[in-house]
Amino acid sequence: MGNAISTRGYGLNLEFLRECAATTTRRRLPTAAQSCSRLSRRGTPSLALQLPNGDVLANDDHNELGDQVSPAPVFLGAHPACVSYAGLPVSRPLGPEEDVARALLDALGPAGREVAIAADGPPYDIYSGTSARAEPLQPLGIASSALGPTARALLDQLVALYLDRLPAEVAAAEAARIAGSQLHFAWEGPLTRVTRHYYRVQGDDLLIEYDTTDDGNHAHTVLRRPSSDFGADILAAHYNAADHPAG
Fold this sequence. Notes:
There is one protein chain. By secondary structure, this protein is α+β, with helices and mostly antiparallel strands. The protein has one domain. The chain has helices at 7-27, 32-36, 95-116, 149-163, 168-178, 232-241; strands at residues 38-39, 47-50, 56-59, 63-65, 68-70, 74-78, 83-85, 88-91, 117-119, 142-143, 184-188, 198-203, 206-213, 218-224. β12 (198-203) and β13 (206-213) form a beta hairpin. The longest helix is centred in the middle third of the chain and has 22 residues, at 95-116.
């Protein structure tokens, strides 16, 4: 099986580890190598980096059968989400995921935001959590068919950021799979920065979630395929098509 993570995804993992190492040094905890890089290549997920604060950066391996690949779920988190010096941000590993979503909110205008904002306050954490099966979330928010050209381009850019965590050929296949399909964007929480907030994108067998938890400087993100996480669709098709002995 191949490792379902792109150069950008790998770079994000390294960025988190650098911040983790710096934090570990400042706190005089055990060495960064001991605290930050527990790596598992067996079981699920196939790549897991345990951070001192308890967060896990994880991605599922390719679940392969023939030429079929199921790449989800992919989870990335950052704590802190923003490292600052002299009042200025120095490192924001998940900055694009927040900034593009906020640009999309701006492009929606007041009427569009009225539809997109599903709740005044954010959830405690991403709704799909650690569940093996993600369920559709309500309300859906604003539909991509209701967006103007600028907002639609920003929504596509936001989805592309998450697909970019996958190897190029897998990301291209996922982009082609959802091209032209209806997407929905929903936001929960205040619009001001440095406060806890949440958004999601849903589409055909697609769920993207982003949230900030704790004090707002701790971000979680996930890319999921609710009907086929962990290769469920590929495995089901295989069993339906093949003869298996009873027992």
